[in-house]
Amino acid sequence: MTDMETVRPNQTPRGVLPDAMERARTHVGVTYKKIVNPQGTYNARAYRSLGVDNSLDMSDFMKTCKVVITLLNKDDCQFDLIGVDAPIANALRRIMLSEVPTMAIEKVFIHDNTSVMHDEMIAHRLGLIPLLVDPRPFQPWKEGEAFNGRNSLRFKLKASCSLLNPRTANANAHAPPEVLYRNSSIFSGSLTYVKEADSPLLDGVTPRPVHDNLLLAKLRPGQSINMECVATKGIGKEHAKWSPVGTAFYRMLPEVTIKQPDLVKGPEAHKLSELCPQKVFDIEEGAAVVARPRDCTMCRECVRGSERAEKVKLERKRNHFLFEVESTGQMPAKSVVLEALGVLIQKCNDVEKALDDAVRRRLGEGEDEVMEAQEQNENAEQGEAVQMEE
């Protein structure tokens, strides 16, 4: 053992923090009046004086990092991300919101609009319609480029309103518009896909809106709409219409502990169970037990007042995140998570490459300086030798 590795009596072993410090590092305390230890400790040298290395070790990370799926369907995905720090979890969340590419209507060419809706309002509504199409075969469109089948999708919106039965219109004046008029309401289902010759193969799926019942405008007899829409590939960072999720958020795993089980029995147990709006506590054999800690929203009713705070302890686990992802329908929620992980991996690769390039440049500049100094020394020595010969 070296001097750094020598363990003296009553000293913390190398690599292990005291229980209180380890609890503060891995948990966030919640009391009725304040949050305890809200900030994480990510500095690699934070515990260097105790002989503890707090840096990220890939071998340990691969052993402790886990993903546990708790709910999965087409539009919703809920999973536990375990063994990572908050910056990594937050990076994944932000990528799902703003960096997973989708297709959305970007340009609207209005040939006719005699409705009461302004051109800009209808164009804005068209842009927010989620489109059911795989964005991967398409190339990003850049301002100034011509639209083609490889970088865009085309849709048509053409409709006009008229009386269904002019003879009975006056007699049924108080009837609903749907009974009196044809095309009284224009919905997203009225968009028609226009295929181009150079469009990529889309596995037999015709691009269309995810929902056909999104109201765009209302028409009355004599009013009409005729528009051409162009959808392009983009990300939510540029505009929210390209975001593939309605929401993507996480919360840290709640941990609820009854500190004094012997004192929370009988009437006290029933009182504690009734206090919690999420029904986290159950009664077993006359005593209160924590039955559903994941449902805890940290409303802190169970720790209101000094008497209750002595019986119940609320915490959140700092490296255990409960994710909920809700897709807008453009792609399955599972695909959104996988695409976001791919973007995160690519970002890591870009950073690694940039660091390698910086190191190479630094080493190259150092070698050039050494070579230049050597050349100067050789030139000086040759000059001195010439002078001595003369």
Task: Report on the architecture of this protein.
Among the domains are: 19-55, no CATH class; 102-242, DNA-directed RNA polymerase, insert domain (RNA Polymerase Alpha Subunit, Chain A, domain 2, Beta Complex), CATH 2.170.120.12; 260-310, Alpha-Beta Plaits (2-Layer Sandwich). 28% of the residues lie in helices and 27% in strands. It is built from eight helices and 18 strands. The protein has helices spanning 19-26, 58-64, 86-98, 119-127, 177-180, 267-275, 306-309, 333-389; strands at residues 27-30, 35-36, 66-72, 76-82, 102-113, 131-132, 153-160, 162-163, 181-182, 185-187, 192-194, 208-209, 215-218, 224-234, 245-258, 281-284, 287-290, 312-327. The strands form six sheets. Strands 1, 2, 3, 4, 15 and 18 form a six-stranded antiparallel beta sheet that branches. It has a four-stranded antiparallel beta sheet with strand order 5-14-7-11, with helices on one face. The longest helix is centred in the C-terminal third of the chain and has 57 residues, at 333-389. The model is unreliable at 1-14 (pLDDT under 50).
Largest sheet composition: 6 strands, antiparallel
Second-tier CATH architecture of one domain: Beta Complex
Number of helices: 8
- The unreliable regions are 1-14
CATH class identity of one domain: Mainly Beta
Question: Could you tell me how far the N terminus lies from the C terminus, measured between alpha carbons in angstroms?
Answer: 65 Å
Tell me the fraction of residues in β-strands, as a range. Answer: 25-35%
Oligomer: single chain
Q: What would CATH call the homologous superfamily of one domain?
A: DNA-directed RNA polymerase, insert domain
Structural class designation: alpha+beta
Summarize the amount of helix as a percent range: 25-40%
What is the residue-mean pLDDT, rounded to a whole number? 88
Integer-rounded radius of gyration: 33 Å
Count of distinct strands: 18
Estimate the global geometry from the Cα principal axes: flat
Helices and strands, in order, run as: HEEHEEHEHEEEHEEEEEEEHEEHEH
